């Protein structure tokens, strides 16, 4: 249960780039870039950061420094919590900027919604790089862990259950939609950040023991598959 709850919150953080972060970008000076194009930096970030993380894994492995799947997932949760905290900071900057402050594009000074708050949209870019690190550590590790540890006859079912958390995360986003508006969205970002960090700590505390027996679990699964063959 703790695993599923943590991943639902994690999915909610990652899904922000497809809705609320797009709206947030629309409140800033875009300099000719459509606000729904900014999220493309998530893919760019994954391409750039992926090799660096692969090098990190190789570096740690050569020096026999343990960095098990549970630790990697916990790191992913912390990064996503940090991304939401950064988003809250960006939202606060928007609210502190003229002409409309905490009512972007709706005050009379916005010229019927054509004039955004005077802050550059590029200050939002780091959030996509932080989320990219969380995605790589979180989704990839979870899929690998679920597949390698599941019984041979249940690998597909377990993988489907992992993906189901993303669906539940989207449903949670629909439930939070009433507060995803100005000025309450700042509180929403802050709360999601706090809950994600708390979930990361609880997750690691609850499951860190499995990193110590990871090789043993892998061997058990291999032996079970050999017996079936």
Keywords summarizing the entry:
mainly alpha, 229 residues, 9 helices, 69% helix, single chain
What does this structure look like?
By secondary structure, the chain is mostly helical. Helices cover 69% and strands 0% of the residues. Helix 4 (69-95) packs antiparallel against helix 5. The mean pLDDT is 87.
Concise summary:
The chain has 229 residues and is mainly α. It has helices at residues 2-15, 20-26, 41-62, 69-95, 125-149, 155-176, 185-207, 209-212, 214-228. The two termini are 33 Å apart.
**Strand/helix succession:** HHHHHHHHH
Q: So how many helices?
A: 9
Q: Total strand count, please?
A: 0
Q: What is the beta-strand fraction?
A: under 5%
Main sheet makeup: none
Mean pLDDT: 87
Shape: elongated
Taking pLDDT < 50 over at least 5 consecutive residues as the criterion, the unreliable ranges are: none
Distance between the termini: 33 Å
Helix content: 55-70%
- Structural class, from helix and strand content? mainly alpha
- Which radius of gyration do the C-alpha atoms yield? 20 Å
């Amino acid at each position: 249960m703790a695993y599923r709850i943590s991943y639902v919150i994690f999915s909610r953080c990652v899904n922000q780039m497809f809705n609320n972060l797009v709206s947030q970008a629309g409140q800033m000076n875009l300099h000719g870039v459509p606000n729904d194009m900014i999220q493309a930096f998530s893919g760019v970030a994954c391409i750039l950061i992926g090799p660096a993380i692969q090098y990190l894994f190789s570096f740690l492995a050569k020096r026999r420094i343990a960095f098990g799947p549970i630790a990697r997932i916990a790191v992913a949760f912390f990064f996503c919590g940090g991304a939401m905290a950064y988003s809250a900071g960006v939202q606060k900057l928007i609210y502190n900027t003229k002409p409309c402050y905490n009512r972007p594009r709706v005050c009379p000074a916005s010229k019927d919604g054509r004039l955004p708050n005077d802050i550059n949209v590029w200050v939002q870019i780091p959030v996509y790089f932080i989320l990219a690190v969380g995605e790589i550590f979180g989704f990839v590790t979870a899929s690998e862990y679920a597949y390698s540890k599941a019984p041979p006859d249940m690998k597909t079912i377990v993988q489907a259950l992992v993906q189901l958390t993303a669906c539940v995360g989207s449903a949670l986003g629909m439930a939070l939609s009433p507060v995803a508006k100005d000025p309450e969205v700042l509180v929403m970002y802050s709360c999601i950040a706090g809950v994600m960090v708390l979930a990361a700590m609880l997750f690691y505390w609850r499951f860190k023991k499995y990193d110590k027996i990871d090789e043993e679990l892998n061997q058990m699964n291999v032996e079970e598959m050999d017996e079936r063959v």
